[in-house]
From TrEMBL:
Organism: Terrilactibacillus tamarindi
Record: residues binding Mn(2+): 112, 135, 137, 139, 216, 218
Protein name, UniProt field: Agmatinase
Pathways involved: Amine and polyamine biosynthesis; putrescine biosynthesis via agmatine pathway; putrescine from agmatine: step 1/1
Gene: speB
BP GO terms, sorted: putrescine biosynthetic process from arginine, via agmatine; spermidine biosynthetic process
Enzyme nomenclature, EC number: 3.5.3.11
EC category: hydrolase
């Protein structure tokens, strides 16, 4: 797999230098070709890495230090700009390789459509895969303005692949009426507005199962994460998302991979969105790997 060498000097804090011995691999998916409002999330992976420089290596939430986790930052996948279909194929192929090598894939987006090929790869290895989806948006459209490859469609695609009854969405506060109707009729779990409290209710039902977790940064209220393409008022706090990550870490889930998507740095000159995302990455490394 070819990666963008421009990122060779920008890696997540305390990334190890050896891929072969790493338990987890951080990789960037800098794609934002199908966004419906504001582009710019292709710059998210790089800014999350740069923001990590300001992090402490120790987490008081997990009571762990990053030196306790062996992870490798592989940089960003090099995409053919503007070609969504080919880019998605490159993502699926790379995640196939990570899984064959026994790695925990931790992706940095990019728009939310990048999660779709990751799930395709994960489902090949884990036939009983479940998805935890944390987001402001339902992402249950079949298409957007006639385009089936859209950042508003990945969760609907996942429902078709692994079964809607294996999809658990939290924090949802935006979507078409038809999306909420589909969620109700299909058997998937869709919890509106909140994350930590409803998540706690469902975690025991997922105990022992392979679970992939995707986090769209816009689940946070714009007061905490203005740097995203489709901000939605009425979201959760950074504290609640940290609590959700910790709840998953303390549960009996078998988390087999994760991603954080939709960080668009251009809309946040204060960098608080990138700073928050980098902290979430640290907590995932310490709690889920």
């Amino acid at each position: 797999m070819i990666f963008d060498e421009a990122y060779s000097g920008k890696v997540f804090i305390m990334s190890r230098k050896d891929y072969d011995s790493a338990e987890a691999v951080i990789y960037g998916m800098p794609m934002d070709y199908t966004v419906s409002f504001r582009p710019g999330s292709r710059f998210g992976p790089g800014r999350i890495r740069e923001a990590s420089i300001g992090l402490e290596e120790y987490s008081p939430y997990m009571d762990k230090h990053l030196e306790e986790v062996n992870y490798f930052d592989a940089g960003d996948i090099l995409f053919p700009f503007g070609n969504a279909e080919k880019s998605l194929g490159l993502i699926e192929g790379y995640v196939d390789k990570l899984l064959n090598d026994g790695k925990f894939p931790l992706g940095l987006g990019g728009e939310h459509l990048v999660t779709w090929p990751v799930i395709k790869a994960m489902a090949k290895k884990y036939p009983d895969l479940a998805l935890i989806h944390i987001d402001a948006h339902a992402d249950l459209r079949e298409e957007y303005e006639g385009e089936v490859l859209s950042h508003s469609t990945p969760v609907r695609k996942v429902c078709g692949l692994i079964g809607a009854n294996n999809v658990y969405s939290f924090g949802i506060r935006s979507g078409m009426r038809e999306e909420f109707a589909f969620a109700k009729e299909s058997g998937m779990v869709l919890e509106k507005f909140d994350v930590a409290e409803p998540l706690q209710k469902y975690l025991p039902k997922l105990a022992g199962r392979p679970v992939y977790v995707t986090i769209d940064i816009d689940v946070l209220d714009p007061a905490f994460a203005p740097g995203t393409g489709t901000a939605e008022a009425g979201g959760i706090t950074s504290k609640e998302l940290l609590q959700a990550i910790q709840l998953i870490a303390e549960s009996e889930l078998n988390v087999v991979g994760a991603d954080i998507v939709e960080v668009a740095p251009a809309y946040d000159p204060t960098e608080q969105t990138s700073i928050a995302a980098s902290k979430f990455v640290r907590e995932i490394l310490l709690g889920w790997v």
